[in-house]
Amino acid sequence: REHAFAVLSTVVDALAHVPEGPGLDPLPCRLLTLLSICVSAAGAALRHPPGVYQGLVRVRLMSVVAVNANTEDPERLAASLSLARRVFAVLRGEAAGSVEVLMARIALVIGEGRRSSAALKEVVLEALGEMCVVPGVLQELYVNFDCNLQSPNLFQKIVLFLSKSALPISPPLSSHNVRALEALLRALQTLSCDGLPPLDAAASPVGARPGGGASRSLELSAQKLTKRRLETAADHFNRSPGKGTSFLQSVGLASDPVTAGELAWFLREAEGLDKTVV
């Protein structure tokens, strides 16, 4: 494992200093592939790094994924997302949340980008499809982000992106549509087989509280309902602040009259508020 960490550090340094130019395009892909092999070899040592040096290597791995995913080269993007999946598999249960979110956000930025090429979007759809079959990933995204007031709706955004991508502009279905549809079917199959994931407050990226059974399901439902109501209130508020506060009162999220504390809570927690209106 010590040798694996040494190689990891060497390859990460090499990737950071790869020159750009003709004839050098395959080099980053090969280094990323080598890095994936090293991650598998390091195994559990990455989950529980014994020192500051190993911890720094782990942080730099995330940086490598983010930097190399910002590319117009489909092969390089595929190698970056493959590395992210490999790191996610190794770090599962500890720092996996950061890898999971990084991968999801990269995929969404590229997949929804108007300037992204068809080849890049194909890579993203394939990566999302593979991510959807990993047990617990979608549930963790929903619990830790869509049900949390301070976090974006990553699960919802992924499902919407796949749904839009699966719908053809005109018949027949393209390979792009088929990949998106396959990813959706994989997601449905995984969700039907798995229950809610066991959460550890220390490992969760948003500090979600552990729990189980019906009480936990009710708690998550309540959190999601509150988040939806805040989103609706923000929409009303952007058109008329008075309508926004009235809606909060009608759903029991504010008293009549609204207190300063309740208004401050709304302004802090609600997403999508128009700063000019505020």
Structure overview:
With 278 residues, the protein is mostly helical. 69% of the residues lie in helices and 0% in strands. It contains 13 helices and no strands. The chain has helices spanning 2-16, 26-42, 44-47, 52-69, 74-91, 96-112, 118-132, 137-146, 154-166, 175-193, 213-239, 241-250, 260-269. It is globular and about 65 Å long. Mean pLDDT is 78; it is low at 198-211.
**Main sheet?**
none
**Uncertain spans, ≥5 residues at pLDDT below 50?**
198-211
Oligomeric state of the chains present here? single chain
| Distance separating the two termini | 54 Å
Number of strands: 0
- Cα-based radius of gyration, to the nearest Å: 21 Å
Structural class estimated from helices and strands? mainly alpha
Tell me roughly what share of residues is in helical segments.
Answer: 55-70%
Mean of the pLDDT scores?
Answer: 78
Q: Element order, helices and strands?
A: HHHHHHHHHHHHH
Count of discrete alpha- or pi-helical segments spanning 4 or more residues? 13
Give the strand content. Answer: under 5%
The backbone outline, from C-alpha atoms, is globular
Task: Describe how the helices and strands are arranged.
Blueprint: H1 2-16, H2 26-42, H3 44-47, H4 52-69, H5 74-91, H6 96-112, H7 118-132, H8 137-146, H9 154-166, H10 175-193, H11 213-239, H12 241-250, H13 260-269
